[in-house]
Design a protein that fits this description.
Elements lengths: L10 H13 L6 E2 L6 H12 L10 E6 L2 H21 L17 E8 L17 H28 L3 E2 L8 H11 L5 E12 L11 H4 L13 H17 L2 H14 L11
Antiparallel strand pairs: 1-5, 2-3, 3-5, 4-5
Helix pairs in contact: 2-4, 3-5, 7-8
Bound molecules: flavin mononucleotide (FMN).
Amino acid sequence: MGKLTKPKLDEKTLKGFNVLVSSRRSVRSFEPGEEIPRKTLENIADAGRWAPSGANSQPWEICVVEEPSRVREVASVMASQADRLNEHCKGFPHVHKKHWVHDSVALMVVFVDARWADTFPTALEPELDDTEYKENRWNILLVSVGAAIQNLQLATTAVGLSSAWLSGGGEPQTAQALRELLGFPATHTPYGIVPIGWPRRRAESRWRRPIEEVIHWNEAATENLRSRNDIDHYIEKERRHSIYKDAQSRDRYVSETMTTDGEIDRVDDGN
Ligand SMILES: Cc1cc2nc3c(=O)[nH]c(=O)nc-3n(C[C@H](O)[C@H](O)[C@H](O)COP(=O)(O)O)c2cc1C
């Protein structure tokens, strides 16, 4: 290995990188048409491949769905998943009704083989208490997959396309439907589905907590930690707007409801 020269801070690249990261947006409305070259899709998948993973286990398989008929089949599975979600879970709006996933030009279905969690720290002897490590294995597996999916989304943004991150593939019924459709065995679960397409409109900003609130210098700034009440309030009043609306209209809505405590208006579209 060559000797490293003392590295210099590259603020310019960091700034550019942060622009890319903050312009990534979950887009739930695509302009149909114009296919994406295979090479581009391969390069996006390649960004996923370079993600870090616990024990370098790389527990993912990235299934790139780009044949139009297959895209429609996966989209139908996800539309059924969204219909069930709408019936069973409170507070998620009806974006699926427009079947926007059907307008994806391609989808990346990230299958995870959870058996690879066996490669993470394990007690030396069977008789030693393994609880501490066992409980962390699942965390390591899932955050590894998250890193891969995040890379896919950033690469998609870098090339000027849009994407979303759908987690419904982890639900057993949807997982089974996707396995059957795409030919994966029971050992593999599609934890992330990333529809990719041409954005129908400009990717607007979305609400983020301010940096001063999120960052803790050297110790917990306990006054910034959010309470149980904050979580309940978020679920009840803010969540729909925070997920699907641009930051400005979300802020407007929140400041209005702070004073009037009005009804949540229906949000039926996302960008
Ligand atoms: C683990 C995870 C699961 C998600 N699942 C869904 C999903 O099932 N459907 C969806 O429309 N968006 C999903 N999202 C997208 C989030 O709603 C979105 O990232 C968040 O509202 C912030 O918006 P932004 O991505 O545009 O910045 C998910 C994101 C993550 C990280």
